[in-house]
Amino acid sequence: xxATKCCKSxxxxxxxxxxxxxxxxxxxxxxxxxxxxxxxxxxxxNQNFISLYEYYGYKIPNTCELTPRRDMYLDNERHKDEGGxxxxxxxxxxxxxxxxxxxxxxFENRHMRQVYRHSDKVCLADHCxxxxxxxxxxxxxxxYWEQALCKQPDLDKLRQKCExxxxxxxxxxxxxxxxxxxxxxxxxxxxxxxxxxxYWENPMKQSSSHITAVYIVLSxxxxxxxxxxxxxxxxxxxxxxxxxTDSDGLIKHRLVEEEQSHLQAPDGTVxxxxxxYAMSGT
Length: 282
What we know:
By secondary structure, the protein is mainly alpha-helical. The chain has helices at 2-27, 35-56, 74-78, 100-110, 128-131, 133-137, 144-148, 152-168, 176-190, 203-238, 250-264, 268-281, and strands at residues 80-84, 87-90, 96-97. Strands 1-2-3 form a three-stranded antiparallel sheet. Helix 2 runs antiparallel to helix 9 (176-190) and helix 8 (152-168) packs across helix 9 (176-190). The protein is extended.
């Protein structure tokens, strides 16, 4: 009888443990959503999608998979504090890390409760195919054969997925031509690069190259300015032919006056003698 009770107790414990483990695994499938790719997708969505809604004052419907409300990792991302180079902070608990990837791992280990886990949650990395996350991040660079053997039908499938997503995100308040025009704007911002001619274009890289060019121009201008400054200073103080014009001769006149006053000023011995005479006279 005791053996039967022990077997039943062991069985119940085993079933309970397996059930808890099953629930844990089921609720942990969010880990299959890559944080780094989701971060790239989020940045592209903010720049090309959400900014358009903000500009026109429209509200993103909850049925849209790109709405921030359904973003799994949005709360984690909002609790990141980039304090400087190699300095990432967790605003949940205050811990600091030198790499963003380590902070992501910290979120996985300590703050998974803040991950959005409802049934309508969205992993933004699932949209990286038509958002071209690898191309934008530079992780995937084009080769000659990839460009030469580009298959437009494959990109057309991605374009259809992108356009279907944009259509599902249209505000309910838009009707008629306004709805059609806004859909065209969304397609242009989000789906226009899904052609063999534009797929490998990287606007992020182009903007960074423009910034680099501006820095180079400013550095050259600064170097030329410093060179001219030292040239003018040298010719003015160490040469008879100054580059500074002084039509009234005020600078030279002041220098002459200062030199004469210095020559006429009594030295220390004369001052001491004068002081002695004054004391003896008293």
